[in-house]
Design goal:
The protein is mostly helical. The protein is built from nine helices and three strands, in the order H-H-H-H-H-H-E-H-H-E-E-H. It has a three-stranded antiparallel sheet with strand order 1-3-2. Helix 7 crosses helix 8.
């Protein structure tokens, strides 16, 4: 019984609790908590689960190999033996692999990614639908002037030489500089227009403010001048009214005197006519 328990490779619950209660976050997650149901958790089962998780991670990635090259045998810093390094590169096949890759198309990009990355080079071309990746890639190759020796289009990927890839990067940088210059010029033009409009608006506001200030100052000046000359104006108006009244009285007196003289003259004329008529009757000869 003791021999079987020892070789079942099970972890003690006390050991699990000890690790789970650790203050270190990494140590606390190394083992699952104790389970009272189901099969016992063994070291072999834990290793098997870890190995399965590791294989899933490896299968979901692209493998890369790193070749270690010894630069010298002296084991001193800042020392490099070129002959020794070249021999290691040749014996490991690295130079041959580089030459083979260089003879072919070392740059291999998915067509959709390639079209999305370099579609700026196909902007403005007539008859090109940028929503179609294959047509966009063909337009990009045509814009760059690539021959079949420089670049090819496969079923799912775009193949390029290193020189072609570098040329594309230069062309993209130049086109982006042109677009950036255009955007900057448009932004500067918009800013200048905005500043001009703001200056014009401020100028108009200043004109209105100056007019209102001038109008207010004129109103205050007229009010102050009226307050100063009010008594003089009232006295002059009263004198004018008195003068008009006295003039009216004098006019009425003159009219009355004129009427009286007319009446006197009329009565005198009547008396003279009556006297002449009486004298005439007296001196009239009898018939």
């Amino acid at each position: 019984s003791s021999f079987l328990d020892k070789n079942r490779d099970t972890l003690k619950d006390a050991f699990k609790l000890l690790l789970n209660n650790s203050n270190d976050a990494l140590i606390a997650t190394l083992l699952p908590p104790p389970s009272t149901e189901g099969a016992k958790y063994t070291v072999g089962g834990h290793f098997r689960n870890q190995l399965r998780d590791l294989m899933e991670v490896i299968n979901s990635t692209n493998p890369h190999w790193i070749r270690c090259i010894k630069p010298h045998f002296i084991k001193k810093p800042l020392h490099f033996d070129g002959v020794m390094t070249l021999q290691q590169l040749r014996s490991s096949g690295v130079l041959g692999t580089v030459q083979i890759r260089k003879a072919g198309y070392p740059i291999r990009i998915k067509i959709a990614d390639f079209a999305r990355k370099y579609k700026v080079l196909a902007c403005g071309m007539e008859g090109v639908d940028l929503s179609k990746p294959l047509e966009t890639v063909q337009a990009i190759y045509k814009t760059a002037g690539f021959s079949t020796k420089m670049a090819q289009i496969g079923k799912t990927r775009a193949f390029l030489k290193s020189e072609a890839y570098q040329m594309l990067e230069v062309l993209k940088k130049q086109r982006m500089q042109v677009f950036a210059s255009t955007i900057i010029m448009a932004a500067q033009s918009g800013v200048s227009k905005f500043r001009t409009a703001a200056f014009s608006k401020n100028h108009q506001v200043e004109i209105v403010q100056a007019f209102m200030a001038s109008h207010l100052s004129q109103k205050l000046y007229r009010q102050k001048d009226f307050d100063l000359r009010k008594d003089v104006i009232i006295a002059q108006v009263r004198a004018l009214l008195e003068f008009q009244k006295s003039e009216e009285v004098a006019r009425m007196a003159i009219i009355q005197e004129y009427d009286r003289q007319i009446l006197n003259i009329d009565s005198q004329q009547r008396e003279a006519l009556a006297l002449l008529e009486a004298k005439w009757w007296e001196s009239k000869p009898a018939r």
